[in-house]
Amino acid sequence: MLTDAGRLLLERARRILQDVEDAKRDIRALSGVDQELLSLGLTPSIMLQIGPDLLIDAKNTIPSVSLSLVEELSNGLVLALERGEINAAFAYGVDEPRPGMERQALFEEELLFVRPATEEALPPTITLAEALSHELVQAGERDMVQKLLRAAAIKFSMPLRVVYEAQSIPAMRALVVRGAAASFMPYGTAIEDVRDGKLVSQRISDLPPKRTLYLIRPASPPLFRHQEAIDRFLGTVTERLLDSLGPLAHRVG
Which strands, in side-by-side order, build the sheet including 101-110? Predict the structure, then answer.
């Protein structure tokens, strides 16, 4: 059995070893070898809008942190956060509190009505009832956008004519480009084909469907060594999105 003196020596040895490991980690961090990993969840529309910009921003503003972007629909990001697979996420429609999760409402975003481009110019706006009268391609019934549209259709006593369902954004866009259906989409989802002239987007003039973006994190997350820099970086994500969305986004609170 160890004597009191022996236990004291063992405890001192453990402390010395811990101090050595801490010093090694700090040296590796300064040399860029031992970077902290920030796993950040983004929805597909956000990834299309600013994903590459965020990777460049992170390299320039938080060089001691390695940024890993995870793309998933909002409900998938919530589940990934709860399973501890990501450190934070920007997700839409997290409107109810969830145990163990901290959420911050950032802004509301209007959805656009998207149609195939035609030779005849379309007006920049359309009423919600008129848009709902079209055959649509949307994500599945659990998707927040379809839930918003279903509630609007009930309000107008109209059927919701979702003739195609697809979880794949490229598949949804391709169906609209081919003229098989129209769709309600976030700006980021349609941005590439709108810029290329393959799709035409119209704002809803009277009752635009809106979704709220949240920053979600674990309620008691482990702190990063560069937590303040990471928090500032997450703030720049919001600003980049607001710049990209322009009049389609409005801060909340």
Answer: 65-71, 36-42, 88-92, 210-218, 101-110, 249-251
CA distances from 96 to 47, 168, 229 (A): 24, 26, 29
Q: Does 2 reside within a domain?
A: no
Q: How far apart are CA 20 and CA 10, in angstroms?
A: 15
User: DSSP states of 82-140 as a string?
Assistant: HTTS-SEEEEE---S--TTEEEEEEEEEE-EEEEE--SSPPPSEE-HHHHHTS-EEE--
Do 163 and 222 reside in the same domain of the chain?
Answer: no
SS3 166: coil
Q: Confirm whether 28 is domain-assigned.
A: no
Phi and psi at residue 42, in whole multiples of 5°?
-135, 145
Counting runs of H as helices and runs of E as strands, what totals does the chain give?
8, 12
- In this predicted structure, the answer to whether residue 230 has a pLDDT above a threshold of 70 is yes
Phi, psi of 82 (to 5 degrees): -65, -30
pLDDT in tens, 32-58: 446 899 999 999 999 999 999 999 999
Record the pTM: 0.81
Q: Are 216 and 101 in contact (CB under 8 A)?
A: yes
Q: Which domain holds residue 163?
A: 112-208
In a domain, 4, yes or no: no
Please state at what angle helix 187-195 crosses helix 169-177, rounded to 10 degrees: 50
Spatial neighbors of 126 by CB under 8 A, at least 6 apart, are 113, 202, 203, 204, 205
Could you report the per-residue pLDDT of 150-162, keeping only the tens digit for each?
999 999 999 999 9
